[in-house]
Write a structure and sequence with these properties.
This protein is of the alpha/beta class. The protein has helices at residues 10-16, 22-44, 62-72, 78-92, 106-115, 143-156, 179-196, 202-205, 216-224, 245-253, 258-274, 281-295, 311-325, 347-352, 392-409, 424-445, 455-467; strands spanning 6-8, 95-99, 133-137, 167-173, 210-211, 230-231, 300-306, 333-339, 357-366, 414-421. The structure holds 5-phosphoarabinonic acid.
Length: 468
């Protein structure tokens, strides 16, 4: 499989003028070599030097590893087991509540928004192709959101014999000790046990934890004897875990083709490993980002998504970059915008504000659904008959071109990440694209992209305050 995602930096390079990026390219090539040396070290199980710890390079070859396993033994492979569990839930329940935060949440949400029907949860069962309604909880300690979700589950049904009333719970936490997820699990587990009966089979069968090999959630799962649990492997950090059971189980429950997603990711890794500068989207993107950040003083990295499907993906990427490289008082600041919506809120600043931003347009070329056209109308007071027959995609395309032109006229850099069609394969490519780029950039900067020591400070304070 070859990759479909393309990267075009022609417009941004016009802003470069005489600037020569060859020093950045040379250093980036060395960073790529280091990154794959990390993979070899990780695979060898050898001693990791202190400055490289933690070394969570497991995500890089993981998609291909899962595919090999699946090809060798479909049923017993991890992918086969995930598909089985997903099919069981699809047959048995009408709603699945996922609990998790950060890397244990954002990738699944990105899959849902990118590839499921925009009104999935409102659609009747027949239109959902057997896919349960999907809820995400446990990503906050918001009283009203939690109370509202528990109330919704209670009001929507109280009869476990009715398919429409039945629901399941998937708590996801690698450490198993994250307070937000743990509190939510306790609350929603009680609600589930009240609904099915504490000693019922369903009270255990319809809870599928995804967690690390040890930790509080693992202990709880063992004690409760949940028949199915999925592991999160050591050596793959939270925000790099979307293509483990963390994201794959939710995606499979959503009815998505996870094999295709893994194939897209594996193809992106191959391309990154062997592609030459100029023909290597991950590499080229990272060079352009770094050049603008370091040599043009543009530390704000804007991912401009066109259309609503990729907002959650953008938030997933915001976390990836922030937690990975926001260290040692360094690291670019990621920002997701959704256009054309945000042209009416942030657009002014991007056109005329500080010259500190590199804009990457994330463009999906073909829509996933039937083409919507502007209709002719007898009442033309809105003056839209001049556009009658134009499709929404044509209007979007005009917006993209018009905005890029407006930025170019002001010498503001934009690049395009082009996705011919959004599906499981291209989403897999995009996940791996940004994960690889983040790690590459970390090695380039001399910042360890793995681990997130800064997140501990608030957690420790919060626990101390709660315990006092
Ligand atoms: O990238 C990370 O490691 C974090 O964002 C974690 O995913 C997040 O803190 C949730 O952790 P856990 O999965 O252990 O509950």
């Amino acid at each position: 499989m070859t990759i479909s995602v393309k990267y075009d930096s022609t417009a941004a390079k016009k802003v470069w003028g005489d600037y020569d990026p060859s020093a950045v390219i040379e250093k980036m090539l060395a960073a790529r070599t280091e990154l794959f040396a990390d993979v070899d070290l990780f695979n060898s199980g050898g001693d990791v030097p202190p400055k490289k710890q933690p070394l969570d390079a497991g995500f890089i070859e993981w998609p291909q590893k899962l595919l090999f396993e699946y090809q060798a033994d479909q049923e017993n492979s991890l992918v086969g087991q995930i598909i089985d569990a997903a099919e069981m839930l699809q047959e048995e329940v009408d709603r699945v509540v996922f609990l998790g935060i950060g890397g244990s949440y954002m990738g699944a949400r990105a899959c849902f928004e990118a590839l499921c029907h925009p009104h999935h949860n409102e659609m009747p069962a027949d239109y959902r192709d057997g896919v349960p309604r999907i809820s995400f909880q446990g990503h906050n300690v918001d009283n009203d959101a939690t109370a509202g979700a528990l109330e919704m589950l209670e009001i929507l049904g109280d009869d476990p014999a009715q398919f429409d009333d039945r629901w399941a719970l998937v708590p996801i936490s690698k450490s198993g000790g994250t307070l937000e997820t743990a509190v939510a699990f306790r609350l929603f587990r009680e609600a589930l046990e009240d609904f099915y009966g504490e000693d019922s089979d369903e009270a255990t069968e319809f809870v599928i934890p995804v967690t690390g090999e040890s930790g509080k959630l693992r202990d709880l799962a063992d004690e409760a004897e949940y028949p199915v649990t999925f592991p999160i492997p050591d050596g793959i950090g939270g925000r790099f875990s979307v293509l483990t059971a963390v994201g794959l189980l939710p995606a499979a429950i959503m009815g998505l083709d996870i094999v295709k997603m893994l194939e897209g990711a594996a193809a992106m890794t191959r391309k990154f490993k062997s592609g030459q500068p100029g023909d290597n989207p991950v590499f080229d993107y990272t060079v352009v980002c770094k050049a603008f950040e370091d040599d043009f003083n543009m530390p704000i990295r804007l991912l401009s998504t066109w259309g609503l499907r990729m907002e959650a993906f953008g938030f997933w990427n915001d976390q990836l970059l922030s937690e990975s490289l926001g260290k040692d008082e360094r690291g670019a600041t990621p920002l997701t915008v959704v256009n054309t919506r945000d042209l009416h809120s942030r657009g002014q600043q991007h056109q005329e504000g500080q010259r500190d931003k590199l804009i990457t347009n994330l463009i999906i070329e073909r829509p996933q659904t039937d083409v919507v056209q502007i209709p002719e109308s007898d009442r033309d007071q809105d003056n839209l008959n001049r556009f009658a027959g134009k499709t929404m995609s044509e209007v979007m395309s005009a917006a993209i071109q018009g905005t890029n032109q407006a930025y170019a006229d002001e010498n503001r850099p934009t690049t395009d990440l082009i996705v011919p069609e959004l599906d499981e394969g291209t989403l897999g490519e995009l996940f791996q694209f940004f994960m690889l780029s983040t790690v590459l950039e970390g090695r380039y900067m001399g910042v360890n992209p793995y681990g997130q020591p800064g997140v501990e400070a608030y957690k420790n304070n919060m626990t101390r305050i709660l315990e006092s």
